[in-house]
Write a structure and sequence with these properties.
Layout (H helix, E strand, L loop, with lengths): L14 H26 L4 H13 L3 H31 L9 H22 L5 H20 L8 H28 L9 H39 L1
C-alpha cells in the first residue's frame, strides 16, 4: 500500500465525488438494462436464433435453465464493463492503476450473476435476493483486490457491496412495480409499460447501490488521508 507524501497530490473525495459516483452507477445500470433488453430480451432476434441452435441439441428444462444462466453471465459482463468504465473515470484520480477496476468489475459481476443464477435456478428457485447477494459478494471481493493495494481498511468495501445490491434490488423492485401498476391502471394498456418499469427498477437499483458504495468509498479515501498524515 502507498505511504505518506502522496495525499497532497490527490484531490479530496467529498460530496461532489459521491454524487458523481451515484450518477455513474445509475447510468451504467440503465444503459445495461436497455442493451440487455434489446440483445437478451424475449423479442430479440439474436436470442431466437441462438435458442433455435440450442434446440437442435435437444430442448429440455435443464438446457433452458443453463441457457438462461449463460444470458445472465452475459448481462453481468455488460453491466460490469459499463459500471467499471464509468466508475474508473472517477477513481483514476484517486488511486494508481485504476484501470484494473474495469476487469475486476467485469469478472466480479459475471461470476456473481452466474453463480447467483445457478442457485436461483436449482437450489433457491426464484429467490432473487440470493441472486443479488451472490453478485454483490463476488463483485465486492474482486474490486477489493484492487482497492487493498492502495487504501487501508479496504475490507469494508466488500461489506458495502454486500449491502448495496440487495438493498438496491429491494427498492428497485418496489419502484418498478409501482411504475408498472401506474401505467396499467387505465383500461387502455400502455405500450412500453414493461420497459418503463424495468428502467425505473434498474435506475433505482443503480442509485441506491451507488449511494451506499459511493459513501463507503468516500469514507475509505478520507481514512487513507488520515492514515498517511499520521504516518508522516
Amino acid at each position: 500500500m502507498e505511504r505518506q507524501g502522496k495525499s497532497s497530490q490527490r484531490p479530496l473525495a467529498g460530496w461532489a465525488f459521491w454524487f458523481l459516483w451515484i450518477t455513474a452507477t445509475t447510468i451504467s445500470w440503465i444503459i445495461g438494462r436497455i442493451i440487455s433488453g434489446e440483445i437478451l430480451g424475449d423479442d430479440s432476434v439474436i436470442i431466437a436464433r441462438v435458442w433455435d441452435a440450442v434446440c437442435r441439441i435437444g430442448p429440455s428444462a435443464m438446457v433452458w435453465n443453463w441457457f438462461l444462466i449463460a444470458l445472465s453471465v452475459l448481462m453481468g459482463v455488460m453491466v460490469g464493463a459499463l459500471s467499471g468504465t464509468m466508475q474508473w473515470l472517477l477513481l483514476r484520480r484517486h488511486i494508481p492503476q485504476a484501470y484494473r477496476w474495469i476487469p475486476a468489475s467485469v469478472v466480479g459481476l459475471a461470476v456473481g450473476t452466474g453463480i447467483g443464477d445457478v442457485l436461483t435456478s436449482f437450489v433457491w428457485k426464484q429467490v432473487y435476493e440470493i441472486y443479488f447477494l451472490t453478485a454483490a459478494v463476488s463483485l465486492g471481493i474482486s474490486q477489493w483486490l484492487v482497492l487493498r493495494r492502495h487504501i487501508p481498511r479496504a475490507g469494508w468495501w466488500v461489506l458495502a457491496q454486500v449491502i448495496s445490491l440487495p438493498v438496491g434490488y429491494f427498492f428497485g423492485a418496489a419502484a418498478g412495480r409501482r411504475m408498472w401498476v401506474a401505467l396499467n391502471a387505465s383500461p387502455t394498456p400502455v405500450v412500453g409499460s414493461e420497459f418503463g418499469g424495468g428502467i425505473i427498477r434498474f435506475a433505482t437499483l443503480g442509485a441506491v447501490s451507488g449511494a451506499i458504495t459511493g459513501g463507503a468509498l468516500v469514507w475509505l479515501l478520507m481514512q487513507r488521508v488520515t492514515f498517511e498524515q499520521q504516518a508522516s
